[in-house]
Specification:
Order of helices and strands of chain B: HHHHEHHHHHHEHEHHEEEEEHHHHH
Strand content of chain A: over 45%
Number of helices of chain A: 12
Largest sheet of chain A: 22 strands, antiparallel, barrel
Oligomer: heterodimer
Strand order of the largest sheet of chain B: 1-3
Radius of gyration of chain A: 32 Å
Radius of gyration of chain B: 26 Å
Distance between the termini of chain A: 25 Å
Distance between the termini of chain B: 86 Å
Structural class of chain B: mainly alpha
Number of strands of chain A: 52
Chain lengths: 1001, 510
């Protein structure tokens, strides 16, 4: 055996994966008077469990079938039986010769060891605000990526996802903290720091996820800690023979809802009326065509995943290999996403030295949604056919008699093509040396490499009225090569009741980025390569490098497991800033008091755990693009002389060379309590986070001549205050086990300062619908207020401020009292971020059956519904809603105006509260019922596990929102403060029905 | 243990080498030069001034400004379904930051910034002095071009004459100061520009262009004497440098660009030979085309976002030519429903155009059977016919009517119109000249300035029945919303006033 292990150590320095699969184990065994079997509570043998005679060095490990034999054991010996992840048991031999041992899985969450970044601590020792995600429950809801799975699983984490295959959801921790667009958390995957974790990462590999929220928890990530940190640790093999797990599921996905749009006959009636009402002859609308654009676009999508794991290990080494295939065919014509991933995680110990690596290689193919089909289905007219052989493209679209500027949404997906192929290597390799038992040195090398090939092409012919449609092809090739090197020294020593641990580190990261773009036109046939272009070739390209160099330190002192003090520090230097502001410091201090360990609590029967926590600290955000402090000349400012193009060059963009880091100081108070043997647990956190020096584009006068975005300055201030609650209850009686866990997040967000020099002018988002203003929450809906519909001329005269209105027009409120209606009358009518978000997970198991129901919801937010805007604007042709009762005379409607085509007065197209709706919802995100076959059946099948399950997702939603789906990220899928909550064709969440099987060999 | 030692050494080696790249934090943009490294050579100076020209050609300026000038005059109106766009010509602007107002303002100042970079940096470059003088004069000319537009569209605007940092707020000039800036730039430009160019420089600003523009600036301020003096300098260059083209129509096609009649043009070309798709700009092989024809072309080939009023058509029908036929300029200016009229090769009926639909022909490619975003037709900024008519106006206002009339007649003769008798009185000729400018220069973005100068813009132009559309009424009914003392200027973008944070006053009435 020793020989084999040495060999293994040697091979560990080479790519390990293949070697490990076939690794065999044999354990030298002596003759003994005590033998037995180690099994878990399910009766599954535990190979590789350690059996040691208490007080001696004598011991052994269980073999492949969990059997062990121990020679020369005293008859009164106490055996200490341990296995990673299981509760260690002490067993009296009591003169028996056969001792069978059943180990229970470690369920006491407080003793669970969690990774919180550079350190690993017992959960009970956590001082900062850290949400430990129940990974097992999380993985029950199939999804393409981690973000989506996190939804509702952790207090303080806001996830908004869509049904768009392969799209990453918006993940925000503790509110919107930055205006720079860089407001998403940092991900630390097995020690590699990355800014996004998308669908090319296989979430089934996750062993644990911790969400670091307050400054005490994130200060060690310094300049990247401001938006929170999500620490992901992937699975490792357990000592024992090769274990094979195979999971598979297949399911169907559909869009929950169809908007009640008019059919051709209904449409013609209203449209003709709109023209007549404007004094025009109606359009000569096509008859004999009645297209239901939603029916044509929507389809039943599928979702499927294969996940095959090999894992195992010997005493000093382990391996975990996973092969993954995920495929999602969209629920509308067009988009799909598939992922192939292989992961190899290994770790080897030899004496004082530990070496390991975690590496995942993936390739994903995505067909993206093209254009904005969820708007086009409303904008399109039912009198236009999907396919029209009279058009060059073969697709129907608006014409003179059926005028609409919608783009054929089917054609967008079929006739045009928008794909991306991503190849990615994400991983880390590390070596750890135990210099002394209390001092360890670790070198961690991380790699995040990605190659993205994006291809977009359009076939010949138009898909939209008056819009030319020539063939063209765009190829974009981007390469990201980000490397990280971290050197850390970890010190940990106990002196009686005093425990001191400390960490110092020196790290550097270098991010390289290259992009090349090529465009060509006039392609013939189905040959979508640049070589086939005949006209207008165009290329673009650039390179970027960013460096980050840091030192970090942590000091932790605890006394008697009762009082803990933790000081963290990081100093970051970034190449993105000018010499004058290159470095910044990020300190944090925190303390906790575990009251339940006090003597006076000894006799209490209520609390099994009670801990108070407090922390303060500063973290930052280096939220600027590379070279943002450097002014440059731009070429290709070309002109024409003598009919020839001549080149020009000039500076376009003014920059601010004095940019600094954004920073956030957080004060956090927390309480952890456990009741009744920790069956009931409660965690509460209250925090006040003051974000300052926020990078904002300060609107400088247009007369400065600046092009391409106003220069940034560190001016903004935002305060986020929140209360986060998590409650869990878990109980087991006989065969029945049940649990409930709930979390809720109350968030209050207020902008304290914007650009003070410019009078704190509000910042407006897309379409001037959202604004961010001092004294208001980030991203508030700021639109005209309406007061119904003018019923008659007398009402118009009485109203006074809209003299040109006619009966049936929308009545706007003159909020500034100026006597007329203009942009100054806009007012705040809602906000994009909810007041309260919650998740509720119920689980139950009885014998082989298990059931999980997961609910999530939000309340207090609003959504701007652009579909409604299209269906009620009337001035420009779009489809209408069947249910809309429009004004036809006094008293007929006070909600929807008289349909008038091409209205020149204050038309319903003005952004108003008519289109801002409540965004509250309560939704059954996931419901799963499973059955695990009992041991007698699976052992006959030579399996260790066999479980079947069915899952339903988004089975019901309670909401007043009239658009497709209240779960709206923001305009064009962008969840930042300028776009949030603006539903301009958001891809709705899907209802899924999934069947799955999990097999263990 | 030996292996472990090797591993440890290897680890420390890795840890230190990877971590110790010395210049890790000194990343200089590898993609472009900085202002400190640029502006060193003659070539840099040429590139710099070319970029200023690119500014006046930019679609957000050269295209949108047509709407701001021509839709607001009584020559044009818009039936665009985009209400905010149509509203520009109706003197109703709810949104002061409507792109076609704001972007014109913005692009004018971007161009001024580019010109100021040249004026600031080129003097220090060691290069041919003659060329340096010319380049500086070109930058002045282009800056004057921009301030002329600012003066006529907004009036009191910030006078930006340097390149300070982003925090600088240049003071708002009063109307005289803004005009003063325009005059000074053209005076400086005319001193440094050559009379003409050859080869690859044809199309650059000329001395004649600067003088003509200076004269126009004086005229707009009713500085008749000064204006006349400048126009005389141009007339002194006839026929050696300038002359009327034999045919009126030759001023609006790609065929006779930079011709003898032309003092300055904004240059366009369809260098990529495209007929479909959208243009792209500012890249290695970008398009340098005009989208004007697409925006004004007959629907569905073009967007028909602006159309000539019935009033304009009527002006052409007032006076027949020498043979009793319709003024020949009409057919090159606009299309209207009458026998034999073809819209890009098809009849009115075939194009589903209504009897009250009239379409701009000037600056479109109406002889083709298609229209696209890729028109190469240059925009004529000043041409000799305009100079003649301006000169005639200046002389007439100075009481020199008899001297003035022949210049109006030069323009009329070219289009086979009867000569005006030299006996006309001052007022009679004044009114005739106003008419002559309309039929000669319609659609060349001059009429709105003329109306303001004449003092005739007002709600009375809407005629007796303002409820009719400008397509069917004999008057531009859009003027019903015109408020004297307000509507002569556009509102300064709210964004600009806000960004100033005080010190920038909105135009009166807005």
């Amino acid at each position: 055996m020793k020989k084999q292990l040495t060999k293994l150590t040697r091979k560990a320095l080479m790519p390990l994966f293949l070697v490990c699969i076939f690794m065999q184990q044999g354990y030298a065994q002596d003759q003994t008077s005590v033998s037995g079997t180690v099994k878990d509570t399910d009766g599954v043998p535990l190979p590789g469990a350690s059996i040691v005679i208490s007080g001696t060095q004598t011991g052994t490990t269980s073999d492949f079938d969990g059997n062990f034999e121990l020679g020369n054991a005293p008859s009164n010996a106490v055996l200490i039986v341990s296995y990673i992840g299981y509760i260690t048991q002490e067993v009296n031999v009591d003169t028996r010769s056969v001792v069978n041992i059943t180990l229970a899985e470690e369920t006491n969450a407080l003793d669970e060891v969690v990774v919180i970044g550079y350190q690993t601590v017992k959960r009970s020792d956590i001082v900062g605000s850290v949400a430990v995600v129940d990974t097992e429950e999380m993985l029950k809801a199939p999804a393409s990526n981690v973000g989506q799975m996190l939804q509702g699983r952790a207090a303080g984490v806001t996830v908004t996802s869509t049904g768009n295959p392969g799209a990453s959801p918006s993940v925000k921790i503790r509110g919107l903290n930055s205006f720079s667009g860089q407001d998403s958390p940092l991900y630390v995957v097995d020690g590699m720091l990355i800014s996004a974790l998308g669908a090319d990462f296989n979430p089934n590999d996750i062993a644990s996820i911790q969400v670091l929220k307050d400054a005490a928890a994130t200060a060690l990530y310094g300049s990247r800690g401001m938006n929170g940190v999500i620490v992901v640790t992937t699975k490792k093999g357990k000592s024992g023979p090769l274990k094979i797990d195979y999971d598979f599921y297949y399911g169907f996905q559909t869009i929950n809802k169809k908007l009640p749009l008019t059919n051709a006959a209904q449409f013609i009636e209203i449209n003709n009326l709109a023209y007549t009402n404007n004094g025009d002859a109606p359009q000569n609308l096509r008859t004999g065509v009645d297209t239901d654009w939603q029916e044509e676009l929507f389809k039943t999508g599928t979702i499927t995943e294969h996940n095959l794991n090999f894992s195992g290990g010997a005493e000093n080494s382990n391996y975990f290999i996973s092969l993954n295939y995920y495929d999602q065919e969209g629920a509308i014509v067009g988009p799909d996403f598939e992922r192939y991933q292989i992961r190899v995680n290994t770790e080897t110990k030899k004496g004082r030295f530990t070496f390991g690596e975690n590496i995942a290689m993936s390739r994903s193919n995505q067909t993206r949604v093209n254009g904005n089909p969820f708007i086009d289905v409303v904008w399109m007219l039912p009198t236009i056919p999907v396919y029209d052989s009279g058009n060059e493209s073969g697709y129907g679209y608006g014409d003179d008699n059926n005028s609409t500027f919608a783009t054929n949404p089917i054609g967008l997906q079929e006739h045009y093509s928008n794909t991306a192929v991503t190849s990615k290597v994400l991983g880390s390799a590390y070596g750890e040396l135990e210099i002394f038992p209390f001092l360890k040195y670790k070198l961690n090398l991380g790699l995040d490499y990605a190659q993205i090939r994006e291809k977009y092409f359009q076939r010949a012919g138009a898909l939209r009225q008056n819009t030319p449609g020539a063939t063209f092809l765009d190829d974009r090739h981007s390469e990201f090569f980000n490397i990280l090197a971290e050197n850390t020294l970890n010190y940990n020593q106990e002196f009686g009741k005093h425990n001191i641990s400390a960490l110092v580190g020196y790290t550097t990261q270098k991010d390289n980025f290259t992009v090349n773009f090529a465009h060509t036109e006039g392609l013939a046939g189905e040959f979508w390569v640049q070589d086939n272009g005949t006209t207008s070739p165009r290329t673009e390209g650039r390179e970027e490098v960013a460096g980050l160099r840091s030192i970090l330190g942590s000091f932790n002192y605890s006394f008697d497991d009762r009082y803990t003090l933790l000081v963290n520090f990081r100093r970051d230097g970034s190449s993105k800033f000018g010499k004058n502001n290159q470095y910044a410091n990020f300190p944090s201090v925190s303390a906790s008091w575990r009251i339940s360990e006090e003597n006076f609590m000894e006799n209490n029967t209520i609390f099994s755990n009670l801990k108070l926590r407090g922390s303060w600290g500063i973290v930052g955000n280096q939220a600027i693009s590379n070279y943002a402090t450097q002014s440059v000349l731009r070429y290709n400012q070309n002109y024409v002389l003598n009919n020839q193009v001549v080149p020009g060059a000039t500076n376009l963009q003014l920059v601010n060379p004095n940019l600094r880091w954004e920073s956030k100081s957080t004060t956090n108070f927390g309480l952890d309590a456990g009741f009744f043997d920790n069956r009931l647990s409660l965690t509460a956190d209250y925090y006040v986070a003051d974000v300052k020096d926020l990078l904002l584009a300060v609107p400088i006068p247009l007369s400065s001549g600046n092009t391409g975005g106003d220069p940034l300055a560190n001016v903004g201030q935002v305060q986020n205050r929140g209360l986060e609650l998590s409650l869990g209850y878990q109980n087991t009686t006989n065969d029945l086990s049940y649990g409930i866990s709930a979390n809720g997040t109350f968030l209050k967000n207020e902008v304290k300062a914007l650009v003070e020099e410019a009078g704190n002018l509000p910042i407006f988002g897309q379409g001037q619908i959202l604004r961010t203003a001092v004294g208001e929450p980030v991203a508030s809906f700021y639109v005209l207020e309406t007061a119904g519909i003018f019923q008659d001329q007398a009402e118009i005269d009485a109203w006074g401020v809209q003299p040109n209105a006619r009966p049936g027009d929308v009545k706007y409120v003159d909020n500034d009292g100026s006597g007329d209606i203009n942009f100054d009358d806009r007012t705040v009518v809602g906000k994009a971020l909810p007041d309260f978000e919650y998740g509720l997970n119920l689980n139950m198991s009885y014998k082989g059956f298990d059931a999980t129901a997961f609910f999530a919801g939000v309340t207090g937010n609003s959504i701007f519904n652009e579909q409604k805007w299209w269906s009620q604007r009337y001035d420009d042709n779009a489809n209408y809603l069947v249910d809309d009762v429009y004004w036809t005379g006094p008293g007929t409607s006070n909600l929807i105006p008289k349909p008038i085509h091409a209205d020149s007065s204050l038309s319903p197209t003005q952004n108003s509260d008519r289109y801002v709706e409540k965004g509250d919802y309560f939704r059954l995100k996931n419901l799963q019922i499973g059955y695990a076959f009992p041991e007698d059946i699976i052992s006959k099948l030579s399996l260790s596990k066999l479980r079947l399950y069915v899952t339903g997702q988004n089975l019901f939603t309670i909401t007043d929102y009239t658009g497709y789906d209240p779960e709206v990220v923001g305009a064009n899928g962008n969840g930042d403060f300028l776009n949030r909550g603006f539903d301009n064709g958001n891809f709705p969440s899907l209802r899924s029905g999934i069947m799955g099987i999990q097999i263990g060999f | 243990m030996k292996k472990i030692r090797i591993i440890v050494v290897f680890m420390v080696f890795l840890g230190t080498t990877i971590s110790c790249e010395e210049d890790l934090l000194d990343q200089v943009n590898p993609n472009a030069p900085t202002p400190e490294t640029f502006w060193k050579t003659e070539q840099d100076a040429i590139l710099g001034v070319n970029a200023v020209y690119a500014g006046i050609q930019n679609r957000e300026l050269s295209l949108w400004e047509i709407f701001d000038y021509d839709m607001r005059s009584d020559e044009g109106y818009s039936q665009s379904p985009w209400t905010d766009l149509a509203n520009v010509g109706r003197f109703v602007n709810i949104n002061y930051d409507f792109p076609w107002l704001l972007e014109v303002w913005r692009e004018l100042y971007r161009t001024i910034y580019k010109a100021n970079q040249v004026l600031e940096n080129v003097p220090d470059i060691e290069m041919d002095e003659t060329l340096k003088t010319r380049i500086l004069a070109e930058a002045k000319f282009l800056r004057g071009h921009c301030y002329y537009k600012l003066a006529t569209l907004w009036g009191r605007v910030p006078l930006v004459t340097g390149i300070e940092d982003a925090n600088t707020r240049y003071p708002q000039g009063n109307i005289d100061e803004v005009w003063g800036q325009v005059e000074q730039d053209f005076i400086d430009a005319s001193a440094g520009l050559p009379n003409s160019y050859t080869g690859g420089d044809v199309g650059r600003a000329t001395r004649g262009g600067a003088i003509g523009y200076l004269g126009r600036s004086y005229l707009q301020q009713k500085k008749w004497t000064e204006a006349a003096a400048e126009f005389e300098k141009i007339i002194a260059m006839v026929p050696g440098t300038y002359d009327l083209m034999p045919e009126f129509k030759d001023n609006f096609t790609e065929e006779f660009e930079n011709n003898k009649e032309s003092l300055f043009e904004i240059q366009f070309t369809n260098n990529n030979g495209k007929t479909g798709g959208f243009p792209t700009y500012n890249n290695a092989s970008g398009d340098e085309t005009s989208e004007r024809a697409q925006f004004f072309g007959v629907r569905p080939l073009g967007w028909t976002d602006g159309q000539p009023t019935k009033w304009l058509l009527n002006q052409f029908l007032i006076e027949p030519d020498q043979n009793g036929n319709v003024d020949p300029r009409l057919q090159y200016t606009l299309a209207y429903d009458h026998p034999d009229e073809l819209l890009y090769g098809l009849t009115y009926e075939e194009r589903s155009a209504g009897p009250n639909d009239r379409f701009w022909r000037k600056y479109t490619n109406y002889w083709q059977d298609y229209e696209s975003y890729f028109s190469g037709i240059n925009t004529r900024v000043i041409r000799l016919a305009d100079v003649y008519l301006m000169y005639a106006e200046a002389l007439n206002e100075l009481g020199r009517t008899q001297e003035a009339i022949p210049y109006a007649n030069f323009v009329r003769q070219r289009s086979n119109m009867n000569n005006l008798p030299l006996t006309m009185g001052q007022e009679e000729f004044r009114l005739q000249l106003r008419h002559d400018r309309v039929v000669e220069l319609a659609g060349e973005s001059l009429r709105f300035g003329d109306m303001v100068r004449y003092g005739i813009a007002g709600p009375e132009l809407a005629g007796p029945d303002p409820s009719l559309s400008a397509a069917e009424a004999d008057f531009d009914t859009e003027f019903q919303n015109f408020v004297k003392g307000k509507s002569e200027y556009l509102p300064i973008p709210l964004r600009e006033i806000d960004a100033y944070g005080g010190g920038l006053e909105q135009n009166p009435g807005w």
